[in-house]
Design goal:
- The complex is a heterodimer of chains A (about 220) and B (about 260).
- Chain A has one domain (about 10-225): Arp2/3 complex 21 kDa subunit ARPC3 (Orthogonal Bundle).
- Chain A is about 70% helix and about 0% strand.
- Chain A has eight helices and two strands; from the N terminus they run ααββαααααα.
- In chain A, strands 1-2 form a two-stranded antiparallel sheet.
- The longest helix of chain A is centred in the C-terminal third of the chain and has 34 residues, at about 170-205.
- The radius of gyration of chain A is 17 Å and the shape is globular.
- The N and C termini of chain A lie far apart (about 40 Å).
- Chain B has about 260 residues and is mainly alpha-helical.
- In chain B, helix 3 crosses helix 8 (about 145-150), helix 4 (about 55-70) runs parallel beside helix 7 (about 115-140) and helix 8 (about 145-150) packs antiparallel against helix 9.
- In chain B, strands 1-2 form a two-stranded antiparallel sheet.
- Chain B has helices spanning about 5, 25-30, 35-50, 55-70, 75-85, 85-95, 115-140, 145-150, 155-185, 195-225, 240-264; strands spanning about 105, 110-115.
- Classes of the chains: A mainly alpha (about 220), B mainly alpha (about 260).
- Chains A and B meet through helix 1, helix 2, strand 1, helix 4 and helix 7 of A and helix 3, helix 6, helix 7, helix 8 and helix 9 of B.
């Protein structure tokens, strides 16, 4: 669920637009450095994958279902830079084509969903990978925990934006606890799905998992 | 087919951009995409920056938007169907009147806060304005034109390329999702409850591998045609003053209305 127009006031939206632009600029530079001319095709198809994977419904119970958010998954599979770019582009398209997330709120949504979720996931993943044994099971577990953390962290971005420039009358404390508790639950689902997806890719094409072979972003390296 | 699984392809539709775009020959459709992007962002910005106390301004925004949608000949049913994306936030806004401080209003069994009511009205008015603007933009502009518009507005080339890849391949990958779903269903799979997750996650994993390999093939094909990280630019005539004024007219009128509503 993305923030619509008018939920956060104009100055705050503008300020987070600047934050998002700066973060995306850093990601562009990092992606160019690690992936050179492969950056665009790779991040492009990752964006398509995230967009398509979000359409797979995971049934929960009693007719409800959820779907993958994909920030942590993208970071572990293709690295944080390409992950940020892929999620940013997904959000741009959702806002401009589907009215999902306000145009004036794009900076807010990019900050929370593309930057915070992906970067938090990658930081947790790196920290866990450093202490866990170098096995595939560890990479799967680290990805799963990273995904779990990334969702509430992303929602904390929203709480911060609401505290600074929220137009609602619900007090920040109430928003904090309700938003956080919902997103801890969503994070649990995200953790399970991310772990399962990473495990399945590791089983057949471990060379494609950036988090498994650091510095070797897939077989395109051989081609380039 | 299991009811839960049948909804796998629910929300974002299959052919992104091309299904959202309604082909017509109207002045709104003819405007260059980058002008429409600027106009849309300007209109939304005016709406977001207008305090809800100037309620007349929001009525005026509505009139302007209905006029644009009418000139573009977008059916009201289409507008309403696409506007349902807003529903979760309508629910959120409905909670606002129960919170707040100061003056209260009694409505039947409920005690409502006046500032909460105002906040709810603000969220609804501005959210709806934003949704209608985005609908007007996507219904009159093909997705690839939109990307070209971003390019002309100097969006970084890498992002423009990623967007182009996305629009080019999203239908291909979405039909892959659909084929995988049919394959699962034909093997008797029913997505019922959490026990179905490993199967669905393996499908997502396979989808990643297929997407990635497609990216590799596309990259190699591009490289063999001389791609070096840059895309050949498309030179287009600069828009005329008339096109600029036509595109910006709704936003300028909205801004004028907002200022007028402050005075009265």
């Amino acid at each position: 669920m993305h923030i619509p127009d008018g939920f956060i006031d104009a100055p705050t939206s503008l300020a987070f637009g600047a934050v998002a632009a700066a973060g995306v600029a850093v990601a562009i530079r990092a992606a160019r450095r690690s992936l050179d001319e492969r950056a665009a095709p790779l991040a492009g198809l990752t964006a398509v994958f995230v967009f398509a994977a979000q359409m797979i419904n995971f049934p929960v119970a009693a007719g409800t279902s959820g779907h993958l958010l994909g920030g942590a998954l993208a970071a572990v599979l293709v690295g944080p830079a390409a992950g940020v770019l892929a999620l940013t582009v997904v959000l741009v398209l959702q806002a401009f084509l589907f009215a999902d997330g306000g145009l004036s709120a794009l900076g807010l949504n990019v900050t929370n969903i593309a930057l915070l979720a992906t970067v938090a996931a990658w930081a947790v993943f790196l920290a866990l990978r450093a202490v866990l044994p170098k096995t595939r099971a560890s990479v799967t577990a680290a990805a799963s925990i990273a995904a779990f953390v990334s969702v509430p962290v992303s929602s904390l971005g929203f709480v911060l934006q609401y505290a600074v420039g929220g137009t609602g009358t619900v007090d920040v404390g109430t928003v904090l606890w309700s938003v956080l508790s919902v997103h801890v639950l969503i994070g649990a689902g995200e953790a399970v799905i991310t772990g399962l997806v990473v495990a399945s890719v590791l089983a057949s094409r471990s060379d494609l998992v950036a988090g498994w072979r650091p510095g070797r972003a897939g077989s395109m390296a051989a081609a380039a | 087919m299991a009811p839960a699984d049948r909804h796998e392809d629910h929300h974002h539709g299959h052919d992104v951009g091309e299904r959202l775009y309604l082909h017509r020959h109207t002045p709104v459709h003819r405007l260059p995409a980058h002008l429409k992007i600027v106009a849309a962002v300007a209109f939304v910005s005016v709406s977001v920056a207008t305090p809800i106390a100037r309620w007349q301004a929001f009525a005026w925004f509505g009139v302007l938007l209905v006029a644009v949608l009418a000139v573009a000949r977008i059916p009201i049913a289409t507008v309403l169907r696409r506007a349902t994306i807003e529903v979760p936030f309508v629910a959120f806004a409905a909670l606002m009147p129960f919170f707040g401080g100061g003056e209260t209003v009694t409505a039947g069994p409920f005690t409502l806060h006046r500032d909460g009511l105002e906040a709810a009205a603000s969220i609804l008015a501005k959210g709806t304005t934003g949704v209608l603007v985005a609908i007007a933009l996507s219904a009159t502009t093909p997705a690839r034109e939109l990307v070209r518009g971003f390019e002309r507005l100097r969006m970084p080339s890498v992002l423009v390329q990623i967007l182009s890849f996305m629009i080019r391949y999203v239908n291909v990958v979405n039909s892959e999702v659909e084929r995988m779903r049919i394959a699962r269903a034909s093997r008797g799979f029913e997505a019922r409850g959490v026990r179905a997750w490993p199967v669905l996650a393996r499908a997502a994993g396979a989808l990643f591998i297929r997407s990635y390999e497609r990216g590799e093939r596309v990259f190699l094909a591009m490289t063999s045609r001389g791609y070096d990280g840059k895309m050949p630019g498309v030179e287009k005539a600069a828009p005329t003053t008339r096109q600029w004024s036509a595109a910006l007219a709704p936003a300028v009128l909205a801004c004028a209305g907002s200022l007028l509503a402050m005075v009265i």
